[in-house]
Amino acid sequence: MSSNTQDGVSTNAPRCTVIVPNYNNSNFIKSAISSITSQKYPNKQIIVVDDASQDDSVDTLLRYLDGYDKQNNLDNEGDLYIGKIHNIPIGIVKLYKNGGPSRARNIGIKLAWDATQIYANLDSDDYWIDGKMEKCIEPFVKFPGIVGAVYTDYCSMNTKSGLKIQEYKEPFSRERIQERCIVHSGAFFSKEALGLVYDKDTQQFYDEEMRTAEDWDLWLRISDHRMIYHIPEPLTVARVHNNNSFSMYGIESWQENWKRIAQKRRKLYEQIHKTN
After folding, report:
1. CA 92 from chain center: how many Å?
2. Which residues, listed in sequence order, are joined to residue 236 by a DSSP beta bridge?
3. What's residue 178's pLDDT?
4. pLDDT tens readout for residues 84-115
5. For 116, which DSSP code?
6. The predicted structure's pLDDT at residue 250
7. Is the Cβ–Cβ distance between 13 and 57 less than 8 Å?
8. DSSP state, 18?
9. What totals of helices (H) and strands (E) does the chain contain, helices first?
10. Residue 15 DSSP label
């Protein structure tokens, strides 16, 4: 997927690809996509990777598009649909087999690699506040080769009660991100930073062994090379419901992956001190 125009007008703004992994969120996915298309940032595209949902998520999206073409299957892993919505390019991948959010995100990243400078994450049950794209992309343009990721504050919203609570994410520091995930999952990151953390052995950006805490693992690895920039505004709304990862996976899964992250950091620490 590639284009240098938005509404027929050429733009020098960096191309931003928004990766939207989805699993059984047909009730929310149109809202997520609409919050992207309503952003005024001029050079964007969307890639939805449906992780073998058992609901009608993909059909819901296809009915929402202005039109689409079905491509050949994606290396026998899934079907690819290419279309537009409000003149914004969108690709929809329907995977045949569920592989978790890391695999879904990796597929989306690779699909857009040749035509992307900045990536953004949006879970299919969340949505953005107007202005998020412009505010998050500005630090990459202002500090090229220095900023590797950008994150904001957010609001959590209970889908049953409708109650919204503003969640504060503290400013980035290397010390704090080692202790806890201070970066919201709906962050932006540069292609350059992703290239620095790409695992050539596994051919992965996100660790596909991890179905939880995979975002924290990525931010930690990016922070080894580039600064992570915090914007103190709640620019994402994260829905809280029974299909969230905290609800889908037990505490054992989270503990296992926290342990995996700790082991990776220990290995890196030993490598650094061994070379010194």
Report:
1. 15
2. 128, 154
3. 86
4. 999 999 999 999 999 999 999 999 999 999 99
5. -
6. 64
7. no
8. E
9. 9, 13
10. P
Q: What are the phi and psi torsion angles at 115 (to 5°)?
A: -130, 30
- Please tell me the predicted confidence (pLDDT) of residue 6: 47
- Amino acid, res. 44: K
Candidate from 142-151, 221-230, 254-263 with smallest mean pLDDT: 254-263
Tokens of 19: 């990766």
Long-range contacts of 201-208 (CB under 8 A, 24+ apart): 204/102, 204/106, 205/105, 205/106, 205/109, 206/101, 206/102, 206/103, 206/105, 206/106, 207/102, 207/260, 208/99, 208/100, 208/102, 208/103, 208/106
How far apart are alpha carbons 23 and 103 in whole angstroms?
12
Average pLDDT over residues 231-246: 83
Per-residue pLDDT tens digits for 120-150: 999 999 999 999 999 999 999 999 999 999 9
- For position 122, what pLDDT does the model report? 97
Give the tokens for residue 12: 């020098």
For residue 74, pLDDT beyond 70: yes
The answer to whether residues 164 and 156 touch, using CB atoms and an 8 Å cutoff, is yes
Q: In terms of C-beta density within 10 A (0-12 exposed, 13-18 middle, 19 or more buried), how is residue 214 classed?
A: buried
Residue 180 or 4, more confident: 180
Non-local (6+) Cβ contacts of 259 within 8 A are: none
**Contact (CB, 8 A) for 81 and 71:** yes
d(CA 157, CA 149): 25
> What b/e string do you get for 145-158 counting C-beta neighbours within 10 Å, with b at 16 or more?
eebbbbbbbbbbbe
